[in-house]
Amino acid sequence: MTRQELAALLTDQTPACGPARRALLSGGAFDVGTNLIPARRLAGVYSRRERRILERGLHSLGLAESLAILRQAGDGALRIAVVQTPDCSGPFIVFLDATATRVLACLDSPRFPPRPLDTHRPSRSAGSHWSEQAATAAPPPGKRQQTAPGGNS
After folding, report:
1. What is the pLDDT of residues 35-76, one digit of tens each?
2. 32: burial class by Cβ within 10 Å (0-12, 13-18, 19+)?
3. Long-range contacts at 80-83 (CB < 8 A, ≥ 24 apart)
4. What CA–CA distance (Å, rounded) separates 131 from 37?
5. Distance CA 78, CA 104 (A)
6. Phi, psi torsion values for 6, nearest 5 degrees
């Protein structure tokens, strides 16, 4: 499938289709999968993802609409395409029919921010020499200490 073919299929199925089409036409990388996956399984996966997104206070454009469409599709086989934004800020997930001739739904997939380190748990790797002291130590010779924008170095 070419970039223009996929862009033509992204119309107004969900609110994320327009931004995904713009990302695609602006040069964003894309990949159309060849595996067929039952819509019911995808609905389960993205239902769990929705819970995680909501728990973390994030938002995913088109997720609620996509979930409704996936649930309605039942056991129908679907393909997944991924469209990356040109600035790599996050991918769009596109759900296509089995023949990749129709887009059923599209959502943006937010990147989850890293969780803070829990300093009360022991290290998982034996022999780890990382410590809070090492994290705040001066950089090795030849390495500049990074400062906040506008700061002095």
Report:
1. 999 999 999 999 999 999 988 888 899 999 999 999 999 999
2. middle
3. 80/33, 80/35, 80/37, 80/42, 81/1, 81/6, 81/30, 81/31, 81/32, 81/33, 82/30, 82/31, 82/33, 83/6, 83/20, 83/23, 83/24, 83/28, 83/29, 83/30
4. 44
5. 9
6. -65, -40
Query: At 92, is the secondary structure helix, strand, or coil?
Result: strand
Q: How many residues does the chain have?
A: 153
Q: pTM score > 0.90 for this model?
A: no
- Residue-wise pLDDT for 73-126, tens only, equals 999 999 999 999 988 888 999 999 999 999 999 999 877 666 665 555 554 444
DSSP summary character for residue 87? T
Output the CA torsion sign for 44, 45, 47, 48. Answer: positive
